[in-house]
Write a structure and sequence with these properties.
182 residues; mainly alpha; GI Alpha 1, domain 2-like; 9 helices; 69% helix; D5 dopamine receptor binding; metal ion binding
């Protein structure tokens, strides 16, 4: 009966399993040894990577900057980056440009509004139209600044307004209102 079972098992089992039991154990031992070597190699790589990261983290300096809005926390960090010689990448520079454009438009809006509230007249009625154009600009809430193409629509109006004596007088009295930038 055992001979029949052995014959049937050879027919039904895959070729590797039907071989001599001693040789399959040896093959699996070799396979296990190869997997063990690979696992050890990967473990050494991971340990080396963790050691490098640990050294890098030790060199990091973490700073918590607290302060009210518009107190200069971001400006401080940007200045530290410049002082330590880390240049800004192209994307960062474009983001700064868009933020500057937004600050210019917001600042001029504040000046036009303050000129009106302080009762200061326009130098010319053409500048009043330019002021209305700038006041019609609506910044996006939570936006990432003003793109160049949008800003170019306001450049002539901004130049005309900045040379207006009414806007210059409002700017001279800026201690009477809040002229904010980010």
């Amino acid at each position: 009966m055992s001979g029949v079972v052995r014959t049937l098992s050879r027919c039904l089992l895959p070729a590797e399993a039907s071989r001599d039991p001693g040789s399959s154990k040896e093959g699996s031992r070799e396979k296990d040894a190869a997997q063990e070597r690979e696992a050890r190699r990967r473990s050494r790589e991971i340990d080396a990577m963790l050691a490098r990261e640990r050294r890098a983290v030790r060199r990091l300096v973490k700073i918590l900057l607290l302060g009210a809005g518009e107190s200069g926390k971001s400006t401080f960090l940007k200045q530290m980056r410049i002082i330590n010689g880390q240049e800004f990448d192209k994307k960062s520079l474009l983001d700064f440009r868009d933020t500057i454009y937004e600050n210019i438009l917001k600042g001029m809006r504040v000046l036009v509004d303050a000129r009106d509230k302080l009762g200061i007249g326009w130098q010319s009625c053409e500048n009043e139209k330019q002021g209305m154009l700038v006041m019609s600009w609506e910044g996006r809430v939570g936006g990432s600044g003003v793109e160049s193409s949008e800003f170019q629509l306001y450049v002539m109006a901004l130049n005309a307004l900045w040379t207006d004596t009414g806007i210059q007088e409002a700017y001279a009295r800026r201690s009477e209102f809040q002229l904010v930038s980010r």
